[in-house]
Amino acid sequence: MGVTMGLNLLLLMAMVATNILSLYHLSSTLQTPKPPTPQPVPDHLLHQLHTLRATINHLTRDHPSPSTATAKTTKPDIPSDLLLYSQLSPIASSCHNHPDLVHKYMTYTPFSLCPLDSDLAEALILRGCHPLPRRRCFTRTPPKPTSSLPLNPFPPSLPDSNVLWDKYSCKSFSCLGGKNPNLGFDLPHEVSNFMTYKSELDLPIPQLFQIAKAANSVLRLGVDIGGGTGTFAARMKLYNVTVVTTTMNLGIPNNEAVALRGLVPIHAPLQQRLPVFDGVVDLVRCGHAVNRWIPVTALEFLLFDADRVLRGGGYLWLDKFFSKGVDLEKVFGPLIGKLGYRKVKWATANKNDSGGIKNGEVYLSALLQKPVSK
Ligand SMILES: *[C@@H]1O[C@H](CO)[C@@H](O)[C@H](O)[C@H]1NC(C)=O
Ligand SMILES: *[C@@H]1O[C@H](CO)[C@@H](O)[C@H](O)[C@H]1NC(C)=O
User: Which intervals hold domain Methyltransferase type (predicted)?
Assistant: First the structure.
């Protein structure tokens, strides 16, 4: 207990110290408008970073040794505020479960280029380590980006030069588009999405607007959860509706593609609280990423978080959610029912691909309206 507190305190002091140092650093470099040329890193700062990493290691490994050399540097008379704030988790608690990844992530040289490790960051985020600890290094950007970015969210192609391809197996958008049109990178192919009615499961956007209009409900703002390359937001933009898209890369440049289409990508996993305030959006759509693979508890939190951000009268759209037929009846149907929303649309159909047939899976497409008051 005492040791943990001591370590917490040490970590806090190290953080405060490095922050003061960086402030000092900032104030001393502000006068000169600078290109980010790597500056020599003072030894004591390196030392502090080292201590910080070591402390994170101690904390995360639950090191019990009472007489660590570092523990004795804590001062006896501590302001109560410091004690209070040292109780706050210095790093998101799930980060504790992955000390090796956190350690690797925090191994960098301050004030110079960051390691090329966006995949490491995503690996941590996907494991619930979110928000990630911040760093003071310069994230790499493509060396020759084009400035002629499209305003149209359905351009014939996206500029390859605006992506760092090092971490991806494909090295161009056309490679990704050719690989699998369902990945969402073949934009001419994406144009027809959300616009046609092929089965009961489809809800074409013009019909969505009709439904909202008939209910006197305006659609202005939305969140698309697990939205891939952002095609839903792209289509809604053409209707003057602002939709932000949560999307993970998972080995393909989804976030980059969303941004290059002039849309807002939110790099957040499904298990994270949406970074949106309560009751402010008109529409939440859950696409293909939201399905029976998500643990039921996580899905329950996801649905309640969607409820949190929706305004009264707003819509939750489960777009082709799939699960086993029996689970839809016994588990997911009742789970969705807990929200107490009005069922505007509730359509199910058998999932006819080989996996669907093997597992007795069904699709559900549901448009649900949040009651105005509880
Ligand atoms: C979107 O806004 C533009 C500019 O105000 C307007 O010309 C256009 O008709 C609007 N589109 C729709 C679908 O409402
Ligand atoms: C699967 O096949 C059945 C029977 O032909 C059909 O009614 C259903 O709509 C199909 N499911 C989908 C998702 O197309």
Answer: 223-317
Q: 82 alpha carbon to ligand 2 midpoint, in Å?
A: 62
Q: What is the pLDDT of residue 75?
A: 43
- Our answer on whether the CB atom of 322 is closer than 6 Å to any ligand 2 atom is no
Q: Is the CB of 199 under 6 A from ligand 2?
A: yes
The residues, any chain, with a CB within 8 Å of residue 71's CB and separated by 6 or more, are 3, 6, 7, 10
| 136 falls within a domain | no
Higher pLDDT, 168 or 87: 168
- Which ligand gives the minimal distance to the CA of 361? 2
> Would you say residue 260 lies in a domain?
no
How far apart (Å, rounded) are the C-alpha atoms in residues 69 and 54?
Answer: 12
Host domain of residue 66? 2-126
Q: What is the pTM of this model?
A: 0.78
Centre of ligand 1 to C-alpha 368, Å, is 27
Classify residue 320 as exposed, middle or buried by CB count within 10 Å of its CB (0-12, 13-18, 19+).
buried
Do 211 and 121 lie in a common domain? no
Q: Ligand 1 site: residues with CB under 6 angstroms?
A: 239-240
Task: Find tokens 């393909």 and name the residue.
Answer: 252
Residue 89 pLDDT > 50: no
Ligand 1 mean position to 240 CA, how many Å? 6
**Average pLDDT value for residue range 266-277:** 93
- Tell me the ligand closest to 240's alpha carbon: 1
Q: How confident is the model at residue 95 (pLDDT cuts 50, 70, 90)?
A: confident
